[in-house]
Every structure is written in structure tokens, then in C-alpha cells.
Design a protein that fits this description.
alpha/beta; seven-stranded mixed sheet; 6 helices; binds S-adenosylmethionine
Length: about 210
């Protein structure tokens, strides 16, 4: 099954809280975004957003330049339906992030919780980083959450790559400076624990050292 069909099948057959990554409120992501983007005019993209409630929180917080991208149209439809009238304020993008047609130097914040870690080949990760570098504004921030080194090795039937903050920074390259990281023990809806690493990286093209 290809990537798109896999995720479409997941969202067509599982309810909102039948998936391990469900969180009723995206508390940590919201607070990290507020920390790096106090200005509500900041353009924000949630990459591999699925049906996440992060967009609900961003709209409530007054952000009005939000793009929600996912490879699954069913996931986006679920979030769009949940938001009702408020969905019209959001740009919905059904695409693979590796090939999505996005504007250059557009976003002040690139958020990704649990999508990057599914990229298991160097070639895929290189395409992801190229997309990130092309679409994030210089001095903008990437907030990327993956399974941590003590997290699961698989999710949703797929292999994942687990990262420490330093390893994630290395993967994105020296133009990204690690400004904050945290370890979170996520509780799945059925009470299991999954260790996540959250990283905040500032895009400083031309920098020579990723950690200062
Ligand atoms: C584990 S879920 C996390 C969803 C959401 N970020 C959250 O935290 O609730 C991973 C999501 O990434 C999406 N995804 C996986 N690979 C993708 C790709 N190459 N491009 C865009 N979306 C992708 C899946 O459809 C799925 O919604």
C-alpha cells in the first residue's frame, strides 16, 4: 500500500481517539508556537496535521494565516468539519509534503508533530528538508516533534526513526539552530506511554554551527 493509501485507510476506519497520537488539546505545540510567534499575523503551517486539534487552538488564539497540510483528505475533512464556520479562515492543503506546491519563504512557523519521523530514507529526509528550507522565512522557526530515543520504533504499522534533539538538529542541517527542546511522555487514549522529543529550531541561513 502506498503512503497516501495507508493514511487514507487509517482515517477512514478509525475514530478521532482511536489513534495513538490523539491529544484533546495540543497544549505543548500551542505554547511553543505562542513563544516563537507572538505576532498573530505570522503565517503558520502544520505539516502532517492529520485531524489534529492544533488548528482549533490556533484559530482561537487569533492566528489567521494558517495552512493545514496532510496527505490524507479524510483527515483534513474531519478537522474542517469540526471547525465549522471557522474552517473558512484556514488554507487546507491535501498533499504529500515531499512534493507539495507551497509558496517560497512564506511561513514564520513550520510545525510538525509525528510526521517527519516516518521518513526512513536519506532521500525522503533530504526532500523534506529542501521543502522546509524553501518555504520557511529566514529567522522563522521549525517546531518538530518526533518519537524520542526511548520512544516506540513503530507507529500506525510503519517504522519510524527516533531522534534526540541533537540528532534532529543534525538532520535539518547547520542553518537550523536548536533553541529549545523538551521530552514529553504522551499518553495514548488507551493509557500507554510514548516518549516524544519536541525541538524548536530557528532558521538562520548562512550559520555555520547548529548548536550555539
Ligand atoms: C501520527 S499522525 C500525526 C498527526 C498530527 N500531527 C497530530 O499530532 O495529531 C501522522 C500524520 O502525518 C501524515 N503524513 C504522513 N506522511 C506524510 C507526508 N509525506 N506528507 C503529508 N502528510 C503526511 C499522516 O496522514 C498523518 O495524519
Amino acid at each position: 500500500m502506498d503512503r497516501q493509501a495507508h493514511w487514507e485507510h487509517i482515517y477512514e476506519t478509525k475514530g478521532p481517539d482511536d489513534v495513538s497520537w490523539f491529544e484533546p488539546v495540543a497544549t505543548r505545540s500551542l505554547s511553543l508556537i505562542e513563544r516563537v510567534a507572538a505576532d498573530r499575523d505570522t503565517a503558520i503551517i502544520d505539516v502532517g496535521a492529520g485531524a489534529s486539534t492544533l488548528v482549533d487552538g490556533l484559530v482561537s488564539d487569533g492566528y489567521h494565516r494558517i495552512t493545514v497540510l496532510d496527505i490524507s483528505s479524510s483527515a483534513l475533512e474531519r478537522a474542517r468539519h469540526r471547525l465549522g464556520d471557522r474552517a473558512t479562515a484556514v488554507v487546507w492543503c491535501n498533499a504529500d509534503i515531499l512534493s507539495a506546491d507551497l509558496p517560497a519563504a512564506e511561513f514564520g512557523v513550520w510545525h510538525d508533530r509525528a510526521a517527519f519521523h516516518f521518513l526512513t530514507t536519506d532521500a525522503e529526509r533530504a526532500r523534506y528538508v529542501a521543502q522546509l528550507r524553501r518555504t520557511l522565512r529566514p529567522q522563522g522557526h521549525a517546531i518538530v516533534a518526533t518519537f524520542a530515543e526511548d520512544g516506540p520504533t513503530r507507529c500506525s504499522g510503519l517504522d519510524v526513526v527516533r531522534y534526540s534533539p541533537r540528532a534532529l538538529q543534525r538532520e535539518l542541517g547547520n542553518d537550523f539552530r536548536l533553541v529549545a527542546s523538551s521530552h514529553e511522555m504522551h499518553q495514548t487514549p488507551w493509557g500507554a506511554e510514548q516518549a516524544f522529543t519536541y525541538c524548536v529550531l530557528k532558521y538562520e541561513p548562512g550559520a555555520t554551527e547548529g548548536v550555539r
